[in-house]
Specification:
It is built from seven helices and nine strands. The protein is α/β, with parallel strands linked by helices. The protein has one domain: Alpha-Beta Barrel (TIM Barrel), CATH 3.20.20.140. The protein has a seven-stranded parallel beta sheet with strand order 1-2-3-4-5-6-7. Strands 8-9 form a two-stranded antiparallel sheet. A hairpin with a 2-residue loop joins strand 8 and strand 9. The longest helix has 17 residues. The relative contact order is 0.16.
């Protein structure tokens, strides 16, 4: 089975959640052989989702595609209580936890990219990994989003490897029972590499960490884009199964592509 569990139909609020618009995502998914699509809006735009349209689609199954209700939530240390409220505010199938901010610095945003210039890159990786660790231990999330996003603009640690910073996080992910997504959006960014890098995927496999897949599409044109490579990366590491979610419950499913 092929799935895309990281899709933003309303992007950053610039598109409205109409039947026609959502159908465009489902038609593109169909052409890419995706059998299950999880819409996972950014939490700050989740009010734009028309649940009547969503529920109708879930029953009518356009192109025979199953749809799931996900959500991508920014993890900010100290906001766990607020995050829990958000998570229980709707019947989500799964919640993706993502770190987009280091002490208020939106490092993945093009406008704030220059912030890398006046920071020690190893310190940035260490801080990023530290926030990820807190996110995993908060026990709020089902899936870790784009786990090595900090590499987005191509900056690599100098004193240690990425693995050095992220292996303790993987151990915690295993302990807390989260899944990690293989996210193809990195292919569209400066780094031109899937999140996570293949050596991390190999390590995830050695820890038996479950995986899911996402294109992080913000437009129908990006729907499922790069997922072939994401599936290949998982298969090369040894993965034969992915997990889907139903009301936060993991469903283990063979990868078929
Ligand atoms: Zn994200
Ligand atoms: Zn996203």
């Amino acid at each position: 089975m092929l799935v895309d569990y990281h899709v933003h139909a309303v992007a950053h609020g610039e598109y409205s959640y109409s039947q026609e618009w959502v159908n465009e995502f489902l038609d593109r998914a169909f052409h890419r052989g995706i059998q299950e699509l999880g819409f996972s809006e950014h939490e700050e735009y989740s009010d734009l989702v028309d649940m009547n349209i969503f529920k109708k689609l879930q029953i009518n199954r356009r192109n025979n595609i199953d749809i799931k209700l996900g959500l991508e939530v920014d993890y900010i240390p100290g906001q766990e209580e607020k995050i829990r409220e958000i998570i229980f505010s709707n019947e989500y199938d799964y919640i993706i936890g993502s770190v987009h901010y280091i002490d208020g610095w939106g490092f993945d945003h093009p406008d704030h990219r220059a912030g890398f210039n006046d920071r020690d890159i190893d310190e940035v990786y260490a801080q990023y990994a530290n926030i990820l660790m807190k996110m995993v231990q908060s026990d709020c999330f089902d899936v870790v989003g784009h786990i090595d996003l900090v590499k987005i603009w191509g900056h690599r640690p100098r004193k240690r490897t990425s693995l050095y910073y992220l292996e303790p996080v993987l151990k915690a992910i295993k302990k807390y029972g989260l899944a990690v997504e293989i996210n193809s959006a990195g292919l569209r960014k400066t780094v031109e590499e899937i999140y996570p890098a293949s050596n991390l995927v190999n390590m995830m496999y050695s820890y038996s960490i479950p995986i899911t897949f996402g294109s992080d599409a913000h437009h129908p044109d990006q729907m499922g884009e790069g997922l072939e490579e994401a599936y290949r990366s998982a298969r090369q590491a040894g993965y034969r199964y992915l997990v889907r979610f139903d009301q936060h419950e993991k469903l283990v499913t063979p990868i078929e592509y």
